[in-house]
Amino acid sequence: MYLTDDPLVPTRAQLPAGLVVPAGGYRIIWASGTVMTDHVGFKLNGLGEAVALFDRLDRGWGMIDASFFTPQTRDVSVGALS
């Protein structure tokens, strides 16, 4: 699976193979622009945009989930509940 901030580039940041998030659980992934454990190599725009989860499906790449957000306030976190 992959995370991206650009739906036209669905393979922007690959999640670790074998990553399991149990039902009701969560995993924090930092969009810090630095590639390392739990960080992806892109930053999100503070003016608002989307982050999406993609996976390869039988017919090509498919969006599994997405979260859209509006302009951000410094030191205020935002989450999504699905």
Task: Summarize this entry quickly.
By secondary structure, the protein is an all-beta fold.
Structural topology:
Layout: E1 2-4, E2 13-14, E3 49-57, E4 60-69
Antiparallel strand pairs: 1-2, 1-3, 3-4
In total, the number of strands is: 4
How many individual helices?
A: 0
Radius of gyration: 13 Å
Unreliable stretches (pLDDT < 50, length at least 5) are none
Major sheet summary line: 4 strands, antiparallel
Mean pLDDT across the residues is: 89
Question: Which H/E pattern describes the elements?
Answer: EEEE
What portion of residues is helical?
under 10%
Account of the 3D structure:
- The structure is a single chain.
- The chain is mostly beta strands and 82 residues long.
- It has no helices and 4 strands.
- It has strands spanning 2-4, 13-14, 49-57, 60-69.
- A hairpin with a 2-residue loop joins strand 3 (49-57) and strand 4.
List the keywords.
mainly beta; 0% helix; globular
